[in-house]
Amino acid sequence: MSQARSILIAVVVAAGVGGILWYHYGRDRLPDEALSSIVPEPAATPPSAPAEAAPAYRVPDPGATAPGFVLPELAGSDGAVRGELEGLVGRQPLEAWLIPNQIVRRWVVFIDNLDRDGVPLPQRPARHVAGVPIVEQRDGRLVLGAANAQRYAALMTLVRSVDPERLVGFYFRYYPLFQRAYGELGYGQRDFNTRLLEVLDHLLATPSVDGPIALTQPKVLYQYADPQLEALSFGQKAIIRLGPDNETLVKAKLRQIRAAIVARALPADAPSR
Description:
about 270 residues, mainly alpha, two-stranded antiparallel ribbon, 12 helices, 8 strands, about 5% strand, elongated, disordered N terminus
């Protein structure tokens, strides 16, 4: 089973939260210097995507939501994006968690893979949670320890601090960069906002698990003993590993972010500006 890691500094997209879903069990950890020097690669061939006539909710042009705002180029956007995120969550949490280069591209790649198998460690947008998974023996079974949820305490403090309205305001202002980065992955004209809402809905559909979560350890990595849990996506397994109370907090924040996106977006058939 992968190390538990990110939902959501969150988006910061899904941001501000999406911070939560980066952790994985037992994978080798590269030094931060190596992480910060790697740029996510676009897909070699365009991935298949469902056909769609139009996005369900279209993001307005930045000029309509932030008059006078000057959008940077994607390749040179890290300074502006980081400055905005510092205003959202503070400098110290950002320095503790965020990989500071290719920020928009990393988050787009990461979000796009939350309902699949995740992304390789060097392409993730945030650093690891400290420590190793806490497991224990109970009634002759290996289970995820109840104390494991405490490993995410600092991250949950960050999740609580995220203001969904301000986060979505940032996302809408910089949306053309998110769309451009998404297009680099080979999706053509498919709308990133539609994809983001799909992923948010997928994460919100994560099943809740009652009682201790049984694990197996066939080699180095832990896996869920329940085949149905082990077959879940990277994002859903990460949410389950947070523990019930943290899962409730994260899902509540994701619902608020989704509601803010829908409330501020345009209907699919609204005229373009």
